[in-house]
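for ur thesis appendix - histidine kinase. copy paste whatever u need, i formatted it the way the template wanted (i think)
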Amino acid sequence: MKRFLILLSILLSLSLSSQQIIPLDEKSYSDSLQNIIKNTAPNTSKVNACFLLSNYYRNRDSLLSKKYLETGKAFIKNSPFLSAKYHYYEGQYNLDRNKKKAAASYLKAIKELAEFRNEESEFMQSLAWYNYAVTQKDKEGYPFLVKTILEKSIPLIKKYETSKNLGFLYTQLAIILTYNAEFAKAENYNNKALGILEKNAPHSAELLYAYLNSTSNFCYQAKGDEAKKFLDKAEKLIAPYPESSANASYYYAKTLYCITKQKNAEALPVIDKGIFYAKKFNQNLLAQMFYFNKYDILKKLKKYNEAKNTLEDVLAEKTLAVDLNNRKTIYKQLSVLNEEMGNAKEALAWEQKYSTLNDSLNTENVKLEINKIESKFNAAEKERKIALLNAEKNQKDLEVSRKNSYLWGLSLILLLVLSLLIFLFIIFRKNKKISEQKINDIKQKEELSLTRAILDGEERERERIARDLHDGLGGMLAGVKINFSTWSSSHLHPEKHSDFYRILGQLDNSVSELRHVARNLMPESLLNFGLETALSDLCEFYTRKDLTIDFQAMNINKKLPLNIQLNIYRIVQELLANAIKHADASNILLQCSQTGENFFITIEDDGKGFGNSKEQNPKSMGLRNLKNRVDYMKGIMEINSDCQGTTINIELSTHGE
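the 3d part is after this line
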């Protein structure tokens, strides 16, 4: 499943960056558009034909695409609507070449198209909003893309319920949800798309891609039989068009199906057909995806040399490897492959490249967090200076007031005495309250600073220990294991020396356990996939035969600052550890939800409650540490415990410090 998600991440980037729906009968489509340009058709028809041809050739022949775009622009004669359409197709031309230029063109198109209240204008606005969000994906992330589709694109054309454009947008939203492992939601939007397209566009490319998206969604859930139903429908749709560029996408979906059903030998000729179409239509990224799958299958078939050559070619071609996360994955695969082949030296070399790149990526994440912290500090420093200037101003105003009171007092001595006594009394009361408040504020700040120092120190020590275990001792043990594996393959017989191989297995298990401990000290899933995935992994780790943990997550913001996510993770980790260690429970329910800037945690177990033993006392060290973390996040905690179980409710603030 993890491998599928790696491939899905790459394929999603492919789907978004190369989003282009062309009719399946491509030759008739392009010929009819060229005939319009050649014949004495009205300028409006020629302009539209040029723009559509520019879009058709944008990934096949960039020079020809540019030529048709500029030709269409030259045909425009004082038509604001056609000028607005030009900006849209200018964005299409630059979408895979220069996202900044493409974004600017889409925004111009949206602004100018909004002046026209007709169906075509609203269709183009919806697609322009969608493609603009695609250009911003790397900067804003997938939530922005989903929000734009739901709040901008779909509302513009939802009133046209039979439109294939609406079906197309539903499929694009389904792709994003599939990538985020929201398979049920993705299936829902795929079904909405199919309901529109099967009835109103039964022979369209949009329907083909809806079938292929449904196939992929079920493949990533390992539901091969369900995937086959949609793959068969896609095959019937594409079969009459052997010259269509969509064949490459069809064969990729068929490759996923073969892998899901573990039909490795059958997948190889399917991949070769897919490579043929991908290269024919300059779909370089998709071609490299086919090669990556081919490597994986050759490895499973133990054709190690062919698998190694295929993966090295993928790395050398650079289309996939230009993305650092993809390159890291390829390095890791080459290390594992060489280890299985007995090439210890090469395995170590690839492992070192993987570790170096992985450390580099982690360092960049750390730098980003440091920059955020520095920005917060600079803002706080500016606020402190402003407050200091205001205090000085208030002090000067107070001094002026006292001088005026003194001058008035010289002329009215009796009134001065009375006024002075009243004034001093008021000042005394006021200063006393201010002093008490300042003392309380200082105490709270000192307690918060102490708690922050303790928690930060704990996390730094955890990170240091995890890094030393994983990179130091873990690397050394991995090297020893690889050397033993290489030596034994040429000196020992598996049956005659079974004890040695048993010990070698124990060494392998020890390396895995060591890395597991390192991940527990500093959860890698939290850094890579966010809080919700890390909490789910934590619950799965604690689950065993006699203990069921039901984890429910609702509306958790994936953009929470890393230090907030880490503190929430540690609180939940302490809660689960206490419940498992002391409660003797059979069932644990963990609920985590977020509303605005408030984060709620509820944990219930059916154990024996706190009782009277010292280790189960609510004032024990474990719960004191838990309370410190809750106080640090300006939260409140409520504990209810009796002989039938324990319930703990926690409310935290995610507003920051």
